[in-house]
Write a structure and sequence with these properties.
By secondary structure, the chain is an all-alpha fold. It is 80% helix and 0% strand. α2 runs antiparallel to α3 and α5 runs antiparallel to α6. It is elongated, with a radius of gyration of 20 Å. The termini are far apart.
Length: 209
């Protein structure tokens, strides 16, 4: 069964269990899905209100964008768990002969690269969504501004959590060029996400104080 088909309680129980999935990568994707869901809600609370008629068309565009992101992030909840399983299965390959050892090593390397790429995709998607969430916070229904604020906080958690999973996998990858490029991109995305969250948190605090 897909993780996204579980009830909230069943998902929480499974996360709290003695299996490694769903782990931090899946939870990061869930944070991204929650960010998209909250942001979409704010657009829907803005659309159709006379007070916000001048931004209605833009809110409709953003609503569709967040709906797509919500579905995309939901898929990553399972994709991250599947990526972990690929690594786990690679480690279980036979290693009796030199040939088997080499094949096992290559399988582990390939699976580990994939396990780094999946959370990197999550981090990218969440980071790219943050300016749009900020736009909703600034121009959407003012009564839901704190919901937009929570959305951007969830997006930031999605980025930083996913990047932790990227980095732990990079430490096991032999391909230095691949690892260095991914590490540099991780640093860029982290800085971008933290600064964007800081900016909107300041904006919202000033708006509601």
């Amino acid at each position: 069964m897909s993780l996204t088909d579980l009830t909230i309680q069943a998902f929480l129980d499974k996360t709290a269990g003695n299996e490694p999935v769903p782990g931090g990568g899946s939870i990061s994707a869930l944070c991204g899905a929650l960010a998209a869901s909250l942001a979409e809600m704010v657009t829907r609370l803005t659309i159709g209100r006379k007070k916000y008629a001048d931004v209605e068309e833009r809110m409709q565009e953003l609503s569709a964008r967040f709906a797509t992101l919500r579905q995309e992030m939901a898929r990553y909840i399972d994709r991250d768990a599947e990526a972990y399983d690929r690594v786990f299965q690679a480690f279980k390959l036979p290693k009796e002969t030199d040939e088997e050892k080499e094949l096992r090593h290559q399988a582990i390397q390939q699976a580990t690269k994939h396990a780094a790429q999946i959370p990197m995709e999550v981090a990218h998607a969440a980071a790219e969504a943050m300016p749009f969430i900020a736009e909703v916070a600034r121009h959407g229904n003012a009564n839901a501004v704190t919901d937009a604020c929570v959305a951007i906080m969830c997006a930031r958690n999605a980025v930083l959590g996913a990047l932790l999973n990227v980095r732990i996998n990079l430490s096991s990858i032999d391909d230095e060029a691949f690892a260095n490029d991914m590490a540099a991109e991780a640093c860029r995305l982290e800085l971008e996400a933290v600064e964007m969250e800081k900016e909107i948190l300041h904006y919202v605090k000033e708006k509601i104080k």
